[in-house]
Automatic annotation (TrEMBL):
This is Polyketide cyclase / dehydrase and lipid transport. It comes from the Bacteria. SUPFAM superfamilies: Bet v1-like.
Length: 156
């Protein structure tokens, strides 16, 4: 059971989203709760890393599952809290992708802090997914062979 689940339709092919997801160093561009993220190896199952949050807390993480251009799951530990973040996408059309981010909360006495964490994670993950959407769409517009969808403004 997921404690938090957010989703969005992105006007971008899955390849653009995958480039963003798999480059942990760029995470602060779209996840505004993160100051810095790094992996200590390639983007594959078993690789460990850490994120430093804006509040200064270090969050060690591990890639638990990676399905190229489809999904990845990472576990993380924040103080006494065990978190599992799942990132999935499904191509809807050549230029649209359904993206889902979800999180599970567990650990000792998790029933005490689950409600508060759900609220905080829902807000943070919604903002992050909105930012990911914007970044992927901007990059897709700049990609060769992709027509700009914005309507130009004309002075009257």
């Amino acid at each position: 059971m997921n404690d938090v689940k957010v989703q969005v339709i992105v006007k971008s092919p899955p390849s653009e989203i995958w480039k963003i997801w798999s480059n942990f160093a760029e995470a602060p561009l779209w996840d505004t709760d993160v100051r810095k993220c790094q992996l200590d190896g390639p983007f594959q199952v078993g690789t460990r890393g850490k994120c430093v949050l804006k509040n200064g807390l270090n969050m060690p993480l591990k890639l638990e599952a990676v399905s190229l251009h489809e999904s990845y799951r990472n576990s993380a530990r924040l103080l006494w809290i065990d978190l599992e973040f799942d990132h999935q996408m499904r191509r809807i059309s050549p230029d649209e992708t359904h993206v889902i981010h979800s999180a599970k909360i567990s650990g000792p006495l998790s029933f005490l802090y689950r409600g508060l964490l759900r609220k905080a994670l829902t807000a943070a993950m919604t903002t992050a997914l909105d930012n990911l959407c914007t970044l992927a769409e901007q990059r897709a517009i700049g990609a060769p062979g992709h027509e700009k969808t914005a309507t130009p403004l004309h002075l009257v």
